[in-house]
Hints:
Blueprint: E1 3-7, H1 11-22, E2 27-31, H2 34-43, E3 48-52, H3 60-70, E4 75-80, H4 86-93, E5 99-102, H5 107-148, E6 152-161, E7 167-176, H6 184-193, H7 197-212, E8 220-224, H8 233-240, E9 250-255, H9 266-275, E10 279-285, H10 291-298, E11 302-305, H11 307-310, H12 317-332, E12 336-339, H13 345-353, E13 358-360
Parallel strand pairs: 1-2, 1-3, 3-4, 4-5, 7-8, 8-9, 9-10, 10-11, 11-12, 12-13
Antiparallel strand pairs: 6-7, 6-13
Helix pairs in contact: 2-3, 6-7, 7-8, 8-9
Amino acid sequence: xARILAVEDDALVRRCIRRILTRKGxxxxxxxxxxxxxxxxxxxxxxxxxxxxxLPMLDGVEVLQRLRELQPGCLRVLVTGQLDLPxxxxxxxxxxxxxxxxxxxxxKALVEAVNEVxxxxxIMKDVMKVQEEAASAEERRMLEECLSGEDVQIALQPIxxxxxxxxxxxxxxxxxxxxxxxxxxxxxxxxxxxxxLSRVAEVVVERCHRWMQVLPAHVRLFMNLHPxxxxxxxGLIARLHPLAPWAQRIVLEITERSKLQGLDQWERSxxxxxxxxxxxxxxxxxxxxxxxxxxxxxxPSYIKVDMSIVRGVDHEPQKRRLVELLxxxxxxxxxxxxxEGVETPEEAETLRAIGAHLLQGYLFGRPSLTLPxxxxxxxx
Length: 380
């Protein structure tokens, strides 16, 4: 039935409460004082707490106040012989106490009080469920609204060829102007919640299709893949089909933090996209824990080093040495290394000196919804 915490310093009363309620099918956990009761509450979840007012160390109101913080879903019942105490009345008005039971009580009164509290709890659960379902339906409606209009856009951030500073590619970054789903993370979270990631991917492909029609012919486009897309090779290929004419200029980024081993058919997905001419990049290298295995499994054409490693590379010898080793690895595997998050001229100069092939970061340009008039050929 229910798990009930009974905090009562009188052992006889405590045993009486346990006997009455266990006969009704409830599980009762006893505590002789407030701190003991709170320890129980920290270790397991309770449906109801029956707490005596006159307790040693902490009075019943204070125990219930702390219990509310530990377990907001536990209904809190104060047992007292003084119903008119201002502190008790105030606690009830503030919602810290769900109900008060007057001492001394009879078995029937205790059972009825607990049953009423449990009915209240069920009503609260039902109301909450209805509210959650309504909120979920509204979120889905907003997501459909967001995806069906022009709220979702793709911003471009330049990726420069390190030796000469010319624009080599742009990274396509999701943006949203929706009043509620007003950024990439709210859109993606809602899509994950409602099973609409493929719909988001379709919109992203359509926006990237627009960009490919206006980008200079020598410029590539880096696109991020959601990890779940790799589990559906056929669906992925179908969604990428509109970009097939530009496959040789499009790089699909797979985040290093993706748990590829937990995804069925990811290898088929990677094989399928590369057969169509798309290139593959490992993104955020160094931000997760499976870097070397990801490099070995994907054999990417591009290795994007996470900004956490790039930041401060000009004055932190260990980071410089790590990037040097990654540059050597890239060259040995015919891949190009992209240094992400470059923010200072000193970082850029150091990365050039140690062999980074491509540079990306705010130093060269922030994500923009419009194509620059120049390709930042003079950026340093």
